[in-house]
Amino acid sequence: MNFDHSPIAKDLIARMQKFMQEEVLPAEATYYQQLKGGSDWAQWQQPAIMEELKAKAKAAGLWNLFLPEDGARLANVDYAPLAEITGRSMMSPEVFNCNAPDTGNMEVLVKYGSEEQKQRWLKPLMNGEIRSAFCMTEPDVASSDATNMQATAIVEGDEVVINGRKWWSSGIGHPNCKVLIFMGLSDATADKHRQHSMVLVPLDTPGVKIERMLPVFHTLDEPFGHGEVSFTNVRLPLSAIIGGDDGISGIGRGFEIAQGRLGPGRIHHCMRAIGAAEYALELMCQRSLSRVAFGKPLAKLGGNADIIANARMAIEQARLLTLKAAWMMDTVGVKGAMSEISQIKVIAPNIATQIIDAAMQMHGGAGLSDDFPLAALYAYARVLRLADGPDEVHRGLIAKIELKNQAARANAALATH
């Protein structure tokens, strides 16, 4: 394994760090002031400063860096440190057009979209002109097992008809959200991983209704938000089905497309979580050296030195495992890296929540306020333990792969005797 960054990646890392320090971080206060819109936190609007920052990032060549095919053409192992840099600010991924769920949706369209779909939706997404949402999770079934899905996408003549209810559809509250990717059951008689399809649904299609926006840790996460959405006899042409130019050939490819979508996205999330943990450790160290209690800096009280040391070790371990997963995706593909991807999906959010929690504790009451970014970072990291699959599902997959590999080794050893 070689984790050395390519010359292109090294240049991008330096430029992104400079851009973050000079443009993004100084603009955070303005962004949240504009988002608040005076006294009403429930306004769903795009802060003007975000569009200004996006224009600057695009002009600086710091744009669509996540996308190997039509973006910066970076390997996963080269994009990983860039994602980590953006983990220091909750608003920064959108600045570089590298925010979820748009990144995953763009990857779907690049890999599986028809030319018509690419022109209508991928092009404006890559230009940062519109936003999108992904509608998969459902309120009435355990969505940790996606085969439970009840929403339907049934072909009727030259149309696909969608019915059902989705929730935690992240990004659907954004004023620029124009299109959804909907996953639903198309053929209940097929193999369980060939029953579902993905369909592109313009948000203004008759029958699509945002029922409510769901708060996360008592905030609505504006301007993106997470919506509960109903679909009632939503009719679309077959060309809206993802996975083939004729529409019909995309029927039953939902799980295949989902797996292709989730692999790289999990790398992005994990590296951003590591960036958040790194930032929390930095703030924790600053606080522990500057605050004095009982006649000593906090760094010299109790077990705080151990907490700081353990945080450093945990971050280094998580980063190395994430880089290994990224390297394996680049060399053997998503399928060959499934165990490692699931491993980082468990480890990175867990170490991030632990380190951010420790930083909050060392900041006392201030750590719970908006005077520091720790509460927002904690909420983000904690959400990741459920987003893209709960920890338990990933542990189950890791164990399944491990047991299979161990059994194969044992059988091979017996065969040689």
From TrEMBL:
Residue ranges annotated for the Acyl-CoA oxidase/dehydrogenase middle domain, each copy included: 133-234
Keywords on record: FAD, Flavoprotein, Oxidoreductase
Cofactor names: FAD
Acyl-CoA dehydrogenase/oxidase C-terminal domain residues: 252-400
Domain Acyl-CoA dehydrogenase/oxidase N-terminal residue range list: 11-129
GO biological process, one term: fatty acid beta-oxidation using acyl-CoA dehydrogenase
Family: Belongs to the acyl-CoA dehydrogenase family.
InterPro entries in the record: Acyl-CoA_dehydrogenase (IPR050741), Acyl-CoA_Oxase/DH_mid-dom (IPR006091), Acyl-CoA_Oxase/DH_mid-dom_sf (IPR046373), AcylCo_DH-like_C (IPR036250), AcylCo_DH/oxidase_C (IPR009075), AcylCoA_DH/ox_N (IPR013786), AcylCoA_DH/ox_N_sf (IPR037069), AcylCoA_DH/oxidase_NM_dom_sf (IPR009100)
Pfam families associated with the record: Acyl-CoA_dh_1, Acyl-CoA_dh_M, Acyl-CoA_dh_N
Protein name: Acyl-CoA dehydrogenase family protein
UniProt GO cellular component terms: cytoplasm
GO molecular function annotation: acyl-CoA dehydrogenase activity; flavin adenine dinucleotide binding
Taxonomic source organism: Undibacterium nitidum
Subunit annotation: Homodimer.
